[in-house]
Write a structure and sequence with these properties.
This protein has 5 helices and 3 strands. By secondary structure, the protein is an alpha+beta fold. The two termini are 21 Å apart. It comes from Uliginosibacterium paludis.
Length: 99
């Protein structure tokens, strides 16, 4: 997978002061960003593991409090992006149907 992906449009924007965050980009985590989280938990979209990793890999950087307050639909969308980084290029290519 690539280093970063297309921005995800949030179903429920995050309010930060006077700013509304409507899109978030998830960047491929390095091993340091995964500290304290379970790889298996991230693949299973475990909420506690996503709360650890998402503040480290989102642009704009979401705070832990903002991640905790995310709409479940938005948490799922961001979590699926994180989980997608654990698939190898070969696995992604073989899973993609060809015409």
């Amino acid at each position: 997978m690539s280093e970063s992906v297309t921005p995800i449009t949030l179903e429920t924007p995050i309010t930060r002061g006077k700013q509304k965050i409507t899109q978030v980009t998830v960047t491929k985590p390095n091993s340091g960003a995964l500290r304290g989280a379970s790889l298996a938990g991230l693949i299973r979209l475990e909420v506690n593991d996503l709360h650890i990793v998402l503040p480290r890999v989102t642009t704009p950087n979401l705070t832990t409090q903002e991640v905790t307050a995310l709409d479940p639909v938005d948490l799922m969308a961001l979590g699926l992006e994180v989980a997608g980084f654990f698939a190898s290029q070969a696995a992604v290519s073989s899973a993609t149907p060809t015409a």
